[in-house]
């Protein structure tokens, strides 16, 4: 199916564990983004990527790692999960700059760190 | 760099009443403007956008927004709301010149609550 898909939809993990959130898009969009959404903070950019093998930090990158070996995939890894990383994570993509068409968002991953 | 301010975190409105969700932005360059809607337990969906031309833009479900350059605003309005409009609404801006490589800047969102 065409679109942008995130997996898993829900995840519970323990403090200190490594966890990877997956994001896959079928349009070959150049740009991909990871956001976290928290009450009172809205959407905060974690990392973004302008193309395969090109990534850069956003507003809140600490504790996260990304990679982009293929244009269609942009996984987000929490190296050692903390309770403060409990959040809803959204992946988004865009064909290029400037952002005329806006983003297309995935449905989100709700992560709980216990 | 740009910033977006949504002054109201929550707006309660009675069904069939009009509503305005406020959005102000600041930027040193020209911008594109967007409104996104997020229904419960879903991702964000593009509601409408302003790129150029007429300053009044409309969505397919009755919302409209007007770009006001002098007031740096892009307020969202609907003349008569329905229960199904209950959602979180996000205003966003992007750098028209393409210099903002990190894409869209979002406001913190406004929760629209429709009361029967």
Explained architecture:
- The complex is a heterodimer of chains A (114) and B (116).
- Chain A has 114 residues and is mostly beta strands.
- Chain A has one domain: Immunoglobulin-like (Sandwich), CATH 2.60.40.10.
- Helices cover 0% and strands 51% of the residues of chain A.
- Chain A has strands spanning 4-7, 10-13, 19-25, 31-38, 42-51, 54-57, 64-66, 76-78, 87-94, 104-105, 109-113.
- The radius of gyration of chain A is 13 Å and the shape is globular.
- The mean pLDDT of chain A is 93.
- Chain B is mainly β.
- Helix content of chain B is 0%, strand content 52%.
- In chain B, strands 2, 5, 6, 10, 11 and 12 form a 6-stranded mixed β-sheet that branches. Chain B has a 4-stranded antiparallel β-sheet with strand order 3-9-8-7, with no helix packed on it.
- Chain B has one domain (3-115): Immunoglobulins (Immunoglobulin-like), CATH 2.60.40.
- The chains are: A mainly beta (114), B mainly beta (116).
- The A-B interface holds A 31, 33, 40-43, 45, 48, 50, 56, 58, 90, 92, 94, 97-108 and B 9, 32, 34, 36, 42-46, 49, 51, 90, 92, 94-98, 100-104, 106-109.
Mean pLDDT reading of chain B: 91
Structural class of chain B: mainly beta
Percent helix among the residues of chain A?
Answer: under 10%
**Largest beta-sheet details of chain B:** 6 strands, mixed
Write a brief structural summary.
The complex is a heterodimer of chains A (114) and B (116). Chain A has 114 residues and is mostly beta strands.
Topology, please?
The complex is a heterodimer of chains A (114) and B (116).
Chain A (H helix, E strand, L loop, with lengths): L3 E4 L2 E4 L5 E7 L5 E8 L3 E10 L2 E4 L6 E3 L9 E3 L8 E8 L9 E2 L3 E5 L1
Parallel strand pairs in A: 2-11
Antiparallel strand pairs in A: 1-3, 3-8, 4-5, 4-9, 5-6, 7-8, 9-10, 9-11
Chain B lengths: L2 E3 L4 E5 L4 E3 L2 E3 L4 E8 L5 E7 L5 E3 L5 E5 L4 E6 L8 E9 L9 E2 L3 E6 L1
Parallel strand pairs in B: 2-12
Antiparallel strand pairs in B: 1-4, 3-9, 5-6, 5-10, 7-8, 8-9, 10-11, 10-12
């Amino acid at each position: 199916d065409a679109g942008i898909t995130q997996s898993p939809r829900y995840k519970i993990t323990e403090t200190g564990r490594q966890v990877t959130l997956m994001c896959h898009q079928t349009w070959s969009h150049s740009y991909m983004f990871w956001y976290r959404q928290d009450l009172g903070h809205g959407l905060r950019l974690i990392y973004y990527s302008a193309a395969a093998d090109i990534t850069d930090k956003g507003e809140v990158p600490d504790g996260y790692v990304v990679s982009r070996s293929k244009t269609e995939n942009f996984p987000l890894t929490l190296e050692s999960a903390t309770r403060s990383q409990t959040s809803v994570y959204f992946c988004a993509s865009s064909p290029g700059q400037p952002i005329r068409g806006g983003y297309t968002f995935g449905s989100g991953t709700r992560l709980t760190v216990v | 760099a740009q910033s977006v301010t949504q002054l109201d975190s929550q707006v309660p409105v009675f069904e069939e009443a009009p509503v305005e969700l406020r959005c102000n932005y600041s930027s040193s360059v020209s911008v594109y403007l967007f409104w996104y809607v997020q229904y419960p337990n879903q991702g964000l969906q593009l509601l409408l956008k302003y790129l150029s031309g007429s300053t009044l833009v409309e969505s397919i479900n009755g919302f409209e927004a007007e770009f006001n350059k002098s007031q740096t605003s892009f307020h969202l309005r609907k003349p008569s709301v329905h229960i199904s409009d209950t959602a979180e609404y996000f205003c966003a801006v992007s750098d028209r010149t393409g210099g903002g490589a990190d894409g869209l800047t979002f406001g913190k969102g406004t929760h629209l609550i429709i009361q029967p």
